[in-house]
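Field: sequence (string)
Field: structure_tokens (string)

Example rows 1 and 2, in order.
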Amino acid sequence: MIEIGGRAVGLDATPFFIAEMSGNHNASLDRALAIVDAIADTGAHALKLQTYTADTMTLDIREGDFLIDDAKSLWNGRTLYDLYEEAHTPWEWHAPIFERAKQRGMLAFSTPFDASAVDFLADLDVPCYKIASFENTDLPLIRKAASKGKPLIISTGMASLAEIGETVAAAREAGCEQIVLLKCTSAYPASPAEINLKSIPHLREAFGVEVGLSDHTLGIGVSVAAVALGATVIEKHVTLRRADGGVDSAFSLEPDEVRMLIRETAVARQAIGGVSYGKGLTEEGSARFRRSLYVVKDIAAGEVFSADNIRAIRPGFGLSPKHIEQISGRRAARAIKRGTPVSWDLLV
């Protein structure tokens, strides 16, 4: 169990839901604030931004390595620079967005992509830092963020187990002990077949940290399954309306879907429980509907019990059906009416 901004995060707490705005503000501060309000209404626990500029991310080159040439990509044909220029959240927007989130009862923080962003976010007193999958091997960045004395949430997309180990070690060496690793598949959108949720309990055991899911799949099913496997944090991209477009809109949830996800992950966590057999507290009333042995024909005193006059039926107030062989062939101690539950005191 750890704490982020005073909120408990762990197996004994409600799954911590992070709404990732990313570039879904579509270059409008008004829209960004509207997203904050809409997500706050869903019951989300935290809102997350991304802190970078196109110049801190890449070079303004329009060919070669800097051009996205992948027919499967949502951003095929775009340059990295243009994509980041469109998607970035202006740094002067961070304070009003964070303040709106705070007013609405949510935590707010961001993903820094370089050292200057870490320092900028420190000045805004964020409750934690998020490290993106594409930066999880940038150990100098990890150390820089870890040195601020706040929890780190680190996506593990594309990282090998050894690389994750190096990242966790770097964070701990820099003074950070409150770490959350997010299982992540860095495809947009990601296929459920490639998520491998069984990695969640393995990560927890391997590194002794809280573990969650950064979910780029469509819908909510994968996130609900992740909670059933022990995820204590869920991160999803969010938008007002996918139809409005935007760099991440295609794999983002709308507010009604966020509300459903928060509800269903809470249900999933509640349902995990422990190892338990037999009647639960709420099943006591249902026990009457089990089958049990009843007299199905009037029986005279001394008459033999047989398949003709006793049978396993509902309700469950008689002896268990497993006793029928012990009872068959025995004689009735007294006259018994049809509809009487069979009990040992009816036998001679």
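Row 2 begins here:
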Amino acid sequence: MKPPVVSDVDRDLVVNEAFGPTFQGEGPSTGRYAHFIRLFGCHLSCTWCDTPQTHDPARHDLAAEQRILSIEDILSWLASTPADLLVITGGEPLLQPRALERLLCAIRERELATDVEIETSGTIAPTDVLISAVTRFNVSPKLAHSGLRRRQRIRPAVLRDLAGSGKAVWKFVVQQVDDLDEVQELVGTYGLHPVWIMPEGTDSSTVLARMRLLADPVLARRWHLSTRLHTLLWENSRGR
């Protein structure tokens, strides 16, 4: 096993994978041509997590799953195959705020992406610099079926900060119709809007079956329904 890598927290990012061009597979930008940077590390451990290689030593050699990329490395990669949309995901990207600030400011200065989205669990508040630099936070508060205690997965002050930023959309991972009641409680308590419901699943048959199950109940609540386009196209292949 390789030893863990060590980064300069202000100038380097600990990355699991960077890939694209591909399509954004979830939420309001579904289908858009995009680059992805998947950052390493997560402080949560959902039972159904579809990216355990970013944090789970029981299933993955974590030293082999992480690499250090300098901001200049990432900028050069983005410039080599331009895409208007950059999606930063994880793991939990907001565990690396300072280097992420520097990266996003450099991307804006060099005009390497028109839009930047950060996928986050809604448990870590973004800095003011990140709020200014991003187009959108795709926030996925975890529900009870994640296997996490409520105090781990629901941080009221963070949810209110994100809602107040004016740059958050709320994308809930749902397994069954009854989960929508829990979503409704969070939406009402914290004033979350707009709401996207996305089926949990890492294969196309599960995603399609759950979308069909959820479609009418989601319509009845006047929410949005998200597919998982990358799963429908490529199943659970990494780097797509």
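free_text_note (row 2): The chain is about 35% helix and 20% strand.
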